[in-house]
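I am still getting used to backbone structure tokens and would like to learn alongside you. Please make up or recall a protein chain and show it to me in full. Would you write everything just below, so we can both look at the same thing?
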Amino acid sequence: MRSAFAKWLFIVYLLGSGTLYSAGILLLFPFIGRTGRYWLASQWCRALLAVMRWLPGITCSVDGLEHLPEEPSIILCRHESTWETLAFMAVFPRRISFVFKEDLLRIPFFGWVLRGLDMVSLNRGSARQAHQAVTQECARRLEKGDFVVIFPEGTRVPHGAPLRLTSGGVRLACATGAPVVPVVHNAGKVWPAKGWPDGRGNIRVVIGPAFSSDDMSQQELNRAVHDWMKAALLAL
């Protein structure tokens, strides 16, 4: 009974605080730049992680921060739930830019703030045109010093599902010369791919070693990233 009450209280907090905070950020948009907007949004993410520990009882730990390169990089991460899209701005010490589907920009308040954060939206039209556009946009974010986060499976998957990576992230790394940093986590154990948190637990995020796109072919890089992520997922 208590867990169900805590779950719904958290949902109310998430939606309510998200709307209010988004409205506040939107009012400040004309007066602050790209860095200020990101800082404000990341503060909400940090507050949300604190509330998660108290209400649904979800904590998180991060291993491998020392693996993050000094230079801007491409993070290839498994997408298991809503958690990582809310938490990564608080978890990662560097500025990140998600690659996300363009439909999210149409969500009131949340989508408007997302547009102002200057991340990378993906129009799922022609595959070739989409890849060219995303490559150009990601290259611009990398030039600005961002870490670009891509979910290479293309959609949310349950924890424990077989790993199936598309080649888009690796192709992007080869096109831009940026290192690839693989990341896995077990958020799907406590926050399912579809739905809301369903229990207490600790979410582990594991950041792997950076792979240089200069030292391998596209196929070799894809295989190295796949093998590391598969082994790391089995250990979670």
Observations:
- Residues 2-235 form a domain with the Glycerol-3-phosphate (1)-acyltransferase fold (CATH 3.40.1130.10).
